[in-house]
Amino acid sequence: MPDSFYGMHWMLATPFDQEEEVDYKSIPYLVAEAISSGCTGVVGLGVMGEAARLSDKERTKIAETIIDAADHLPVTLGTSANGTKAMIERSKEAEQMGAAAVMVSAPSMPKANLDALFGYYYQLAEQISIPIVMQDYPQTSGVEMPVDFVVRVANEIPNVKYLKLEDPPTPTKISAIRNKIQDRLGIFGGLGGVFLLDELRRGSIGAMTGFAYPEVLVQICNHHKTGASDLAEKLFYDHLPLIQFEQQEGIGLAIRKAGIHHRGLISHPIVRHPAGQLAENTFNELLQIIHRVGLK
Description:
This protein is 48% helix and 12% strand. The chain is α/β, with parallel strands linked by helices. It starts with 6 loop residues before the first strand and ends with a helix.
């Protein structure tokens, strides 16, 4: 498999102002940070981007803003929807805008039906020519993707070229998939990078995640690729306290936005309602950990 997508793809937050309107002016700063950090690409309109809280008009304008700012950096756009038709329309729009790939998670299903889920991806692959990143994230979709299902998709839908795997234990699942299809599918980790080191060792090609300091994960991926495993391991464990702190259930996005705002990349750390904002004591703990791991 070509490794042009190998590395760190930064999941972009959607910045909002104090009235919870989209802050389009901050988006180019996020993209510029991804470029300067050495990211392989960026991903917009994912869970990190609060896509479920955006109107269709906002989604389109955000996508356009990201692509305009990205220059030649590959942009993957989240196009998930609970209806196949809506998902395909979003994906076609993404391709027309110039997206390098689309990321699609399983739709919400009252009762999981793997044949229907297969059809969801199969129909999409018939309608677009850019690569599809299948997102396996049952915590948000409520739909489990067994290893045999992933293998079936890989074997029968060639345009699904990548898997964003967020179904822990992710290293174990990577090995199970690799044992059946080798390198047919490029597998990315997510979940804030909390399992990144072991995922790379098991055969992942990088990460698609929103950790507030993407340059750290870029360096881990690069060290691993060049065989500098000791450097990759040291960097990972040096920053693990912050990686874990960000990955807290329910408030992880608020923590990440606070970190990104602390770096001066977005004007406000606002998370759109009904999500709650970060408590002051949690923010102070975040600052202490950032200092402790040696970041600014």
